Amino acid sequence: MAGFSTQLEDLRESGRHLGKAADAAGEAHKKVGGMDIPSGPRTEPSGPFGLDVITVPDNAFGTTLGMPAVAAAYDQHRQKIAKLLDRLRENTEATSLALSRVADLYEEADASTQSRLGRFSNQLDGI
User: Fold this and answer.
1) Does residue 3 lie in a domain region?
2) Within a domain: residue 120?
């Protein structure tokens, strides 16, 4: 590309790779989001006479020996990871779009420069 030290195809290819990385981060976010573990007490209408009963959900960490607290800590950590993955996806996607736009701007600038050089050359030929 005349006048610039970068190749448009390099910018576009980088944008495509980052787009794929954003997709991968989005998929990871979905998977981490599906790994939640119920940890706190919940109420269920299963008591006598239809009254609500508070129960501790059974989960991978069990329901005894303080394991609900471990499950809660795990789930808090999982939620933080999910937020970070979502931010990674957003930022990577934005960078991909920005690289594509920069390539478009370079292309427009190059075309404009070529057009002006052509007009200038025609003017010089007429002298």
Assistant:
1) no
2) yes
Residue 88 to residue 18: CA distance in whole angstroms: 11
**Could you tell me where the beta strands, DSSP code E, fall in the chain?**
42-44, 53-55
**Cα–Cα distance for residue pair 102/70, rounded to 1 Å:** 48
Residues spanned by the domain of 64: 8-125
107 token code pair:
């292309």
Q: What is the pLDDT of residues 23-69, one digit of tens each?
A: 999 999 998 887 777 655 566 666 566 666 666 555 666 666 567 77
Specify the pTM: 0.65
- Alpha-carbon separation of residue 66 from 42, 45, 57, 97 (angstroms): 16, 25, 13, 47
Distance of CA 53 to the CA centre of its chain: 41
User: Is 1 part of a structural domain of the chain?
Assistant: no
CA distance 8 to 111: 13
Say if CB 23 and CB 55 are below 8 A apart: no
Q: 15 in a domain, yes or no?
A: yes
Number of domains in the chain: 1
